[in-house]
Structures are given as structure tokens and as C-alpha cells.
Design a protein that fits this description.
The chain is α/β, with parallel strands linked by helices. It has ten helices and 13 strands. The protein has a seven-stranded parallel beta sheet with strand order 3-2-1-4-5-6-11, sandwiched between helices. The chain has a two-stranded parallel ribbon with strand order 7-10. Helix 6 crosses helix 10.
Length: 306
């Protein structure tokens, strides 16, 4: 089976590519390398260096004739989406619709979409949030992911393009970029290993649902190998506060850094935790890697590269 994987040079996408290749799938990657890295592209995958908005996408589909598209390429910065909603719209909505139109034209069998659980639900009414929770995104990034989900439903009902949406909670693990707008795990790990002082925003009591990137890659494989249509949270269902995370990483890295707090980020969500039960029921997926083990693997990786 041949797969086009967008964003396959990125943090999550490269782990998906690794797993697909190990299972014998043929993988062609489309990535503009704006945030992805060429060294993340695994041996055995073909890289097409271009944006998902590029008209030459048609040529890639003509050349590769994919059976499935797995779409991870995106503008991923929440703060950048607030500063420049039009750019976010161009990549995350226009780029996705461009891929969907091309997929239909070339008779692609299925489209798997990397969405967001953290940004799409907004402030939770109940915990953990399941897929029936109201969708109230608080950023253009969250809005663009929700719009893309609605386009997927349109292309399914109108053109018969099967789809699976994977709504990720806070993904962490090896290859995550510790610079720019990165996940707190990567930022803290980088600073602790370099003898620098991590700063906890606000009280540190804000919680997140941290899911290991290897588990996320496994969810993509399950979506590929099942016929389930719809939206699925990919998460752990466990709340971990930023303070708890700090002390776990402090112990693993043997960092002497004290707990230091800075100003709270304006508009930061207080609690976020997602139920993965529907993914277990329909996709046969469940989180397997504990936070302790995942953080250890992440720290071990950062020791070798940064």
C-alpha cells in the first residue's frame, strides 16, 4: 500500500513514517521543511520538498498514485495563529482543502487527519472531555483544525472519501523541537540538561494530558488498518500539572534547578484532559507508554542530540 504523508519530516510525522516503513508500507513525504528537518526523514521514504498549498501537489499524486493520505503538515503555533489568522487559514484550511480535492481527483481510498484535542474543545465542561464535548476553540489554530474536520465530512458525504480524524492531546517525545513554540516537555528538558533555569508560567497548577509520540504513531497505524470513520481522541485520560511535570523531569535529569514561576500566559487553558475510550472501542487503540517511561526516553534522546 502506498501512502502520502504530509509533514513527515516533523516531530510527529517522522515517527509515523518510521512505523509505517517498519510495517512494509511505501511512504512518500510532502514537507516544506519550515519546521520539519530533513534528517528526520527515515531511510526508505521519498521526500517532496514543497508546501501543501503548492500546485505541484498534483504532480506528486500523479507520480505516486497513493492509496491513503495521512495529513500532518500544518501551521502549528497557537500564538502565531492569533497574530496572523490569515496565514493560519492559508496553510491549515486552504492547504487541507487542496489536498482533499487532489485526493478525490486521484481516487485516494482514505484520508487520515491529525487534528487537536487540546485546542478544539476549549475550556472543558466536564472531565475528561470525550468526542461529544462541545467544540469551542479559543484560537484561530483551533478554529482552522475544526474547519478542516468539517471539510472532511463534506468530502466524505459528497465524494465518498473515507476519513479518520485523530484529535491529539499534548504530544511529547524524541525529536520535539525545544525552541520557538514547543511543548513544555521539550523546553524543560532542554533547559535542565544545559544547566539553565526553566520558568513555570503562572501557578503551574494548569494541567495537560501528555501522550507519548510512539503511542500517537500507533494510533495512525490503527486508523490506517481499520475502516472506522469519524473523530477520535488520542490521549491518556490522565491530568498532569506543569508543577508535577517539572519535578518528574528534575528527577530524571538530576537537575539542581529550583521551582521558579513567572507570569501566567494570558488566556491559557486551566485544565485539559481527554477520554480515549472511543478510540479503544472503534480503533482498538489505547495508550501504552507511561509518562515516567516516555519522559525517560525523551531525556535520553535529548542527551544525544542537544
Amino acid at each position: 500500500m502506498k501512502i502520502i504523508l504530509t509533514g513527515g519530516a516533523g516531530f510527529i510525522g517522522s515517527h509515523v513514517a518510521d512505523l509505517l516503513l517498519s510495517k512494509g508500507y511505501t511512504v512518500a513525504i510532502i514537507d516544506d521543511l519550515s519546521s520539519g528537518k530533513k534528517e528526520n526523514v527515515p531511510e526508505g521514504a521519498i521526500l517532496y520538498h514543497m508546501s501543501i498549498t503548492d500546485k505541484r501537489i498534483q504532480d506528486v499524486f500523479e507520480q505516486e498514485k497513493p492509496d491513503v493520505v495521512i495529513h500532518h503538515a500544518a501551521q502549528i503555533s497557537v500564538s502565531a495563529s492569533v497574530k496572523d489568522p490569515l496565514f493560519d487559514l492559508d496553510i491549515n484550511i486552504r492547504g487541507t482543502v487542496h489536498l482533499l480535492q487532489t485526493a478525490v481527483h486521484f481516487k485516494v481510498r482514505k484520508f487520515i487527519f491529525a487534528s487537536t484535542g487540546g485546542a478544539i474543545y476549549g475550556e472543558h465542561e466536564y472531565f475528561p472531555a470525550d468526542e461529544r464535548h462541545p467544540l469551542r476553540p479559543l484560537s484561530p489554530y483551533g478554529v482552522s483544525k475544526l474547519a478542516a474536520e468539517k471539510y472532511l465530512y463534506f468530502f466524505y458525504t459528497t465524494h465518498g472519501l473515507n476519513y479518520t480524524v485523530l484529535r491529539y492531546s499534548n504530544v511529547y517525545g524524541p525529536r520535539q523541537d525545544p525552541f520557538g513554540e514547543a511543548g513544555v516537555v521539550a523546553i524543560f528538558t532542554q533547559k535542565m540538561l544545559h544547566g539553565e533555569q526553566p520558568i513555570i508560567n503562572g501557578s503551574g497548577e494548569q494541567t495537560r494530558d501528555f501522550v507519548y509520540v510512539g503511542d500517537v504513531a500507533a494510533a495512525n497505524l490503527r486508523a490506517l488498518e481499520t475502516d472506522c470513520i469519524g473523530e477520535f481522541n488520542i490521549s491518556t485520560g490522565i491530568e498532569t500539572s506543569v508543577n508535577q511535570l517539572f519535578h518528574l523531569l528534575k528527577k530524571i535529569t538530576a537537575s539542581p534547578a529550583p521551582e521558579v514561576h513567572g507570569p501566567a500566559l494570558p488566556g491559557e487553558q486551566l485544565r485539559s484532559v481527554l477520554s480515549w475510550k472511543l478510540a479503544e472501542q472503534r480503533l482498538g487503540w489505547r495508550p501504552m507508554v507511561s509518562l515516567q517511561d516516555g519522559l525517560q526516553a525523551t531525556v535520553d534522546f535529548f542527551k544525544t542530540v542537544h
